[in-house]
Amino acid sequence: MGVKRLEHIPGFNIDRVAAAAGDDPDVLRLENLDTDVPPPAAAIEATRAAIGEDDANSWLPFTGRDDLKEAVAAYIARHGGPLYDGVREIVITSGEGDAMLDALFCLTDPGDEVVLTDPTYAGMLNRVRLVGAVPRLVALIVVDGEWRLDLDALPAAVNDRTRVVFINNASFPSGWVANAEELEAVASICRERDLWLLYWGGFEGVLFDGRTIVHPAALDGMRDRTVTVGSPTFEQRMIAWRIGWVVAPGELVNDVSRVQIYNGLVPSGFNQIGTRVALGVPDDDLAAANAEWEKRRDETLRQLDGLPVVRPAGGWSLLLDVASLGLDCAEVSDRLLAEKVAATPMRGWGGEIADRHVRFVFSNEPVDRLALLGDRVRSALGRP
């Protein structure tokens, strides 16, 4: 007999697809959020060195090292965010997942409502459900070949039970990057309705076509009503380090600290040291990684030209609308596997819009292998 809190929380489809793909080297691995672009060399070296340090093998400090908190605050300010007191307004966590859950526990009570986009990251959507809150979805729509937030639907999603607007930018899995009008619309509704903005900024610097970072907490009146979740997972490619943070302004940090102590308890000491070094690496490191990912995005788009895909403005993935071809996303995922393409159906990653799509993660295959994609996808779809 299961508990009610898990009734509407499915498992990830990603592990099923990955297991079916196995270790066949001919399969294009586009199902999981990985990348073969290596982390900064200095971060790897610092992590290795720290493994032998006594203070890096400790329960303390429970909410993270002060030097890493200060590095996070400096990193945010360097990329256009507001100034934060690292020691007093930042909690270090064991990855972005802990950080999201910590924040949601502190921002909502059971029955409160949280506004998210459709599609969105399933880990955002289902952590809302885990804390007992209720997700409300606002559509991402396609305008001029790119994703845009449905600004007419946003106010209608907010009511007296709404407590939080929860977005990520660049958004996973769609690649939506909010423009100035969309960010201001989100900020305005937060100010007018006295809502928190919960912002997952993991991909905020993974931007294409010359776009630049705009941190929503830097908008007028938003510093003290924005809670930011971050990590070195994507920009620094440090997936297995499992370090994250919550920027919790003012007195909210006390609540987040308590939740983290009883949820994640303590992040890895040596990985915190590696992360601190990574955050100090010059910005040309991320620029070089973005240049490679943009090449892979462009090749993926070339391979899928003529099919109903939406050009991502950032992030590591894009979506193919298989419903517009009269097909089911899970069925297409199975057909793709038969053609040696591992891609994940987006059922459960939002509502009816997510359900239309299959996701391709382009960050983990080089351009020469991505050049194999088009023929395989068309064969799976039964299209010339």
H/E order of the elements? HEHHHEHEHEEEHEEEHHHEHEEEHH
The CATH level-2 architecture of the largest domain is identified as: 3-Layer(aba) Sandwich
Report the sheet with the most strands, covering strand number, pairing sense and barrel closure: 8 strands, mixed
Low-confidence stretches at least 5 residues in length (pLDDT < 50)? Answer: none
- Beta fraction: 15-25%
Mean pLDDT: 96
Number of helices: 13
Task: Tell me the radius of gyration.
Answer: 20 Å
Please identify the structural class as seen in this structure.
alpha/beta
N- to C-terminal distance: 49 Å
CATH homology superfamily name of the largest domain: Type I PLP-dependent aspartate aminotransferase-like (Major domain)
Number of strands: 13
Can you tell me the CATH topology of the largest domain?
Aspartate Aminotransferase, domain 2
Number of domains: 2
What is the helix fraction of residues, given as a range?
Answer: 25-40%
Task: Name the CATH class of the largest domain.
Answer: Alpha Beta
**Strand arrangement in the largest pleated sheet:** 2-9-8-7-6-3-4-5
Shape: globular
